[in-house]
Amino acid sequence: MIGTALAVLAVGATPLTAQAADTDPSSPPSAAPTGFLHVYYNTDYSGWCDDWSGEAPDWGSCRNEVSSLHNNGYPGDLDDIWVYWGLNYTGARRGVYRGAGLTDLRFYTFDANTGPGSGESLNDNISSHKWTNLP
């Protein structure tokens, strides 16, 4: 893809930033906002699972099966996402800023002290999400 992909993931109140090379084949599928959270069964945005423009209390067939995701929400109010360990927005959570593309969820964990699942890997371990405004 042309340009540099910028991924930002919220860690409590402190964001973590990573930058990919211009030739990175795992750049998010679309740099232009689509208004959706895109989730994939495999790393590097392969094996599409689902897209959501709204909140999802149960990821259905994607539940505990996702290895990469891209928050491609529209800029504005409620454009960031909390992903949750449990159904119905329960258990540990982790924030994902708008525009963040996470090619391999094995490298990310749920925030500490946020409930059951705290500190566990996000990979194959997300059950629900809701849109929010992260700090």
The average pLDDT score comes to 83
Going by helix content, strand content and strand pairing, the class is: mainly beta
By DSSP, the count of extended strands is 9
Write the element-wise H/E pattern from the N-terminal end onward: EEEEEEEEE
Q: Name the poorly predicted regions.
A: 1-26
In what range is the share of β-strand residues? 25-35%
N→C terminal distance: 29 Å
Shape: globular
The biggest sheet amounts to:
5 strands, antiparallel
Calculate Rg over CA atoms.
13 Å
Helix content: under 10%
> How many H/I helices?
0
Question: Which strands sit side by side, in order, in the main sheet?
Answer: 2-1-7-6-9
Question: Can you summarize this structure?
Answer:
This protein is mainly beta and 135 residues long. The chain has strands spanning 6-11, 14-19, 36-40, 48-52, 68-72, 80-84, 93-96, 101-102, 128-132.
Search tags:
9 strands, single chain, 135 residues, mainly beta, five-stranded antiparallel beta sheet, 0% helix, disordered N terminus, four-stranded antiparallel beta sheet
